[in-house]
Amino acid sequence: MEAYCVKCNERQELLDVTPTTTKTGRPASVGICSICGTRVFRMGGLGQSSQNRDAGPTTTPGSMSLSDTGALDTRQTLPILGALFIIVVLIILNGLRKN
Fold it and tell me: Of 2, 55, 79, 98, which one is least surrounded by beta carbons within 10 A?
């Protein structure tokens, strides 16, 4: 498996590759650079090909879909919540101005 080594500044073959997960539960791999011996971290599991990695998200931007965990994707909901917050603040300020 190859990954980008920040010490060598190029993609290198990894030794002792171990599958792991991130804090958010996404698959990742950790290994040792075959040239300099630096610990290298790569997103994606051991069996993930470059075609799957480059495919991108399966949902269209702006669509509200449930993720695998059953929660809404925050990249899609935060802009909506921000717009609602602005609308509520404007309504409150407009009501205060009338009084």
Answer: 98
